[in-house]
Amino acid sequence: MGMAVNNLPQMAQIREECEVFHLTDKQIREIMSRLHNDLLKGLGKDSHATSIVKCWITYIQDLPNGKERGKFLALDLGGTNFRVLIINLGENHFDMQSKIYAIPSHIMTGTGVALFDHIAECLANFMKEHNVYEERLALGFTFSFPLKQLGLTKGILQRWTKGFSCSGVVGEDVVQGLKDAIARRGDLSLSVMGILNDASGALMSCAHKDPYCRIGIIIGTGSNACYVEKTENCELFDGEPGKPDLLINTEWGAFGDDGTLDFVRTEFDRDVDVNSINPGKQIQEKMISGMYMGELVRLALVKFTRMGLLFGGQGSDILFERGSFYTKYVSEIESDKLGDYTSCMEVLEELGLSHATEADMAGVRHVCESVSRRAAHLVSAGIATLLNKMKEPRVTVGIDGSVYRFHPHFHTLMCDKIAQLVSPGIHFDLMLSEDGSGRGAALVAAVACRQSLGVA
What we know:
By secondary structure, the chain is α/β, with parallel strands linked by helices. The chain folds into two domains: 1-56 and 210-425, Hexokinase, domain 1; 59-196 and 434-448, Nucleotidyltransferase, domain 5. The protein is built from 15 helices and 13 strands. It has helices at 10-18, 25-43, 105-108, 112-129, 174-185, 198-207, 267-274, 283-288, 293-306, 327-335, 342-350, 358-390, 402-406, 410-421, 436-452, and strands at residues 56-57, 70-77, 81-89, 94-102, 137-143, 147-151, 154-157, 190-196, 213-219, 223-230, 245-249, 394-400, 427-432. The strands form three sheets. A six-stranded mixed beta sheet has the order 1-11-10-9-12-13, with helices on both faces. Strands 4-3-2-5-8 form a five-stranded mixed beta sheet. Strands 6-7 form a two-stranded antiparallel ribbon. Strand 9 and strand 10 form a beta hairpin. Helix 7 packs across helix 9 (293-306), helix 10 (327-335) packs across helix 12 (358-390) and helix 12 crosses helix 14 (410-421).
């Protein structure tokens, strides 16, 4: 049983230990400057190959303008489930129906052919259910894995993440994989009009409602950002000349993979990384996203328990087990009103820590706040870096993902911090993206159709 190290009261010592999660303004400015340099490297012709933040070109150059009309299909593949959606765009309405299909684990780790055949099969069933089986429809495809795009409808998978390992897909064009599966069936007439990731989807779905939307952010299981860049700054762009803007998929979750964030990383960050499925990769994402936030809190709680600062030095088997502290617990604990520990008590009971005192609960809450605040400040530093780079007087940021959606203070923490960090004269709004990955895919298809009809 550990004993308190010095004579400071318990809470004061916990606060002192949690200082490692506090980013000073000086550190945040340094992070912004490093990210800015990494973005320039990703965009540059000669530096892109060795860059850490890849800044992939999406070939999306036209945002929705609200004049898109018609019926569109969308596919959303980004995790253990995928969705098929049908979306009807009218003058003043936006009807959407969707269905979620499971991807059995033997398909997630099987062949690419089997994966795309399964998707095509579900697509055909969905079209029958919605009486559009005979129609020729345009389709948008949200594919939330690292993609190198060679065109609006051509994307080469860089690596699988999130538990997928289908053979024969890495290094190949995933749109072709889908088209081949549709062709093997021979019963559907679909045109795939575009492929995008969830960050681009968030931007597109918000831009449909708000013409100032120029940045899309994901703060969920992962962390990513895309933004509208001036085409002339994108040295690798080889598409049609003449359009001033181009959407860039930063893949900023990899920021820090070369050690640039080591000066602010803690022993807890290093522990999470070493024990992850991709050590040394996605370092910024591991300091922010929902896949890791709960584990960072757990590691700190374990350390403080062993120091005798929490639970009278008595932990529990569950607390000492990796992954047992879910990120949703962080949101629940921080949702309690000040001085009320109802949710905190429930969480600690689930973790076998029913012997916790009120002082322990205050300590646990402080650890949660320290970790989530740091995450919010890191995302804010990233968004402010983009806003300052873009120099637009007014920008709306479309944001999707479970952490932003469900954490009680994330939005406010971000608003306050970004306001401190942006250059004078830049006005910004944060907007929750409603189902970016579904809606966004349909809008990419709709905008592409609008272009091909010449209805600019």
